[in-house]
Design goal:
Helix content is 19%, strand content 28%. The chain is built from two helices and four strands. It has 115 residues and is α+β, with helices and mostly antiparallel strands. A hairpin with a 2-residue loop joins β1 and β2.
């Protein structure tokens, strides 16, 4: 959810919104989730900073903990990987790689067929 919230807040800052692509695909022994927007993009000098605690581009009233929390959950907790790519005025793509074993629900049996 944080990925989509960030698109709303930062990719289309004029408040008009815009297109977002969300792709989920199987990759080897796991899954890849990609969220792509076609908004303003992330400045190159900010790409490494967006996953740092308390960094908020042009939004001083935000705490800057959403991305670091997501990164910690995916990387540290689920042993996955997060990649961010962006081009100014073209948009940004966030790619999350998860191992299939991370998606198993222990409290209920569930089954999802993916391609």
């Amino acid at each position: 959810m944080n990925l989509l919230t960030n698109v709303q807040r930062y990719a289309y800052p004029d408040g008009r919104g815009g297109a977002v692509e969300v792709l989920v695909s199987k990759a080897g022994e796991g899954f890849v989730i990609q969220v792509r927007d076609f908004g303003v993009g992330i400045p190159p000098e900010a790409l490494d900073q967006v996953v740092q605690p308390f960094f908020t581009p042009a939004r001083p009233w935000r705490y800057g903990l959403g991305w670091p929390s997501c990164r910690n959950i995916v990387v540290d907790g689920l042993k996955g990987k997060v990649e961010i790519a962006s081009t100014l005025a073209t948009g940004a793509t966030v790619t999350v790689h998860l191992r299939a074993s991370c998606l198993i629900c222990r409290s209920k049996a569930s089954h999802v067929d993916v391609g």
